[in-house]
Amino acid sequence: MAAHPSIQAITARIVERSKPHREAYLDRLQRAVAKGPHRTVLSCGNLAHGFAVCSPAEKDALAGDVVPNLGIITAYNDMLSAHQPYETFPQIIRDAAREAGGIAQVAGAVPAMCDGVTQGQPGMELSLFSRDTIAMAAGIGLSHNMFDASVYLGICDKIVPGLVIAALSFGHLPAVFIPAGPMTSGLPNDEKSRIRQLYAEGKIGRAELLEAESKSYHGPGTCTFYGTANSNQMLMEIMGFHMPGASFVNPGTPLREALTREAAKRALAITAQGNEFTPAGEMIDERSIVNGVVGLHATGGSTNHTMHLVAMARAAGIHLTWQDISELSDAVPLLARVYPNGLADVNHFHAAGGMGFLIKQLLRGGYVHDDVRTVFGHGLEAYTVEAKLGAEGQVTRESVPEVSGDPKVLTTVDQPFQKSGGLKMLTGNVGLGVIKISAVKPERHIIEAPAVVFQDQQGLQDAFKRGELNRDFVAVVRFQGPKANGMPELHRLTPPLGVLQDRGFKVALVTDGRMSGASGKVPAAIHMTPEASDGGAIAKIRDGDMIRLDAVAGTLEVLVDAAEFDARIPAVADLSENEFGMGRELFSAFRRNVGRADQGASVFA
């Protein structure tokens, strides 16, 4: 099934722009593949170290290059609810590999921090940089050159993008991503949000807030709202890194284990020693990246991916831009309503038909490319299924129904929730930024109000508590970009701004920081670049300047005489408090060398 002409045109533009970089990347990949099986290049001493703890039979197998060896990169820790289930996965994978006639070894572990724990704390200033750290850590594990394929155990915010960058940097190896699934549904997300606003207003205490939060985040698995973690899982499936139907099956279930075993065996089946060799760097191409962006828009996914997808694509020599992302948003309808874009959680989304139904609808409308390679084979049509547990404990698959299980959660291309995906690029005299409007009511898509400028989110919270913000205003929170302090997420701003909006005031946010997958009902122009610490125009804004945010036209303007605005000297900030503590001193080189948000906010060239 051919993609719609508008999708094809954007894809063709990306192909043309990427050509020199992509050709150089594929040439490097082919040279790596041409070197043949990797263990033969290791000296006897190298190899003896590599399989020292293996059984005699495994040593015999690994001494040659006939039996494939699967490298496991794991982001397990038992503090993250989403990653705690991974504790048992390596043994499951080893057993499955043995059954398939192969071997599996844990090649390395990567850090995995929880943004939910570090929100508003100094540690959050390491969060974005953890993505590139994860890519490098995975690269160290794979650099032992012992492996014929790799599997990646990762779920959450920066972790999956970092692992994808690693998988594409080692693009001569097949790569399969294995999810752990979302936790079961707890306190509804809209009720959690209501409790947070009551706490922000001082109407309830910490005990009531903690009780609500604990009922929401209550067990193993991914948080159930549609933030970056679950956007990651959607991306891995629609881009072909997951087995079909794998993304949103709860942990600790027989089907979850069966999918894990199947993924391990599939990774071994697509090595160079078989007949279906699928190196990750060839599998992922411009069409796969476009499919990922389309999936993001169709589901109202995380704004973090306006940076992560750019960085992931560049790891494969593909140059994706914010303009591409914005134009794809204009072309792609919103088909899912999952909190914060609706009341449902990801379990409800999965029950309504999930990824299989979504992909089927996107194919029907011509919004995605079917002619792509995946870890499952050729064609995205194979992903229009629901995974089930067979009588023998194996994975079986059935075509998804033609009708959504819940039209309020998941709909068809003929009756979309809105005609566009809701992610817009903003341009104007403040620079470039993005806004997510899929959860913002139409009457709030255009806000014009005076600026109130803050140097951090605590300043806004303090002003709110003093009662100084009961008016129309645009909050400008700057010096929150990657060069300033690692670009933390600013979710502590959501409750007070939500309260003020509910009181009837026109409010909006403009920041060079992040709001990410939980971006909600308050219009927020985020990721503004150039950032304040890089001399960006956001540093020229003064209290009282009229600002017009127009998400319909895609513009953000300070309504000040152009000559006067250009002549202003950008404000500076004392950022010394951001340089030390909670490991921040270890990341000073990242802050000095990080690229712009629209270029992926990466330390890699």
Automatic annotation (TrEMBL):
Query: What GO biological process, any one, is recorded here?
Result: D-gluconate metabolic process
Q: Which InterPro entries match?
A: 6-phosphgluc_deHydtase, Dihydro-acid_dehy_C, DiOHA_6PGluconate_deHydtase_CS, ILV_EDD_C, ILV_EDD_N, IlvD/EDD_N
Q: What is its EC number?
A: 4.2.1.12
- Gene3D superfamilies in alphabetical order: IlvD/EDD C-terminal domain-like
- What's a Pfam family in this record? ILV_EDD_C
What cofactor does this one take?
[4Fe-4S] cluster
Which residues are listed as membrane-spanning?
A: none
Q: In this protein, which residues make up the domain named Dihydroxy-acid/6-phosphogluconate dehydratase C-terminal? A: 408-601
Q: What does this protein do?
A: Catalyzes the dehydration of 6-phospho-D-gluconate to 2-dehydro-3-deoxy-6-phospho-D-gluconate.
What PANTHER family is this protein classified in?
D-XYLONATE DEHYDRATASE, PHOSPHOGLUCONATE DEHYDRATASE
In its UniProt entry, what is this protein called? Phosphogluconate dehydratase
Its gene name is edd
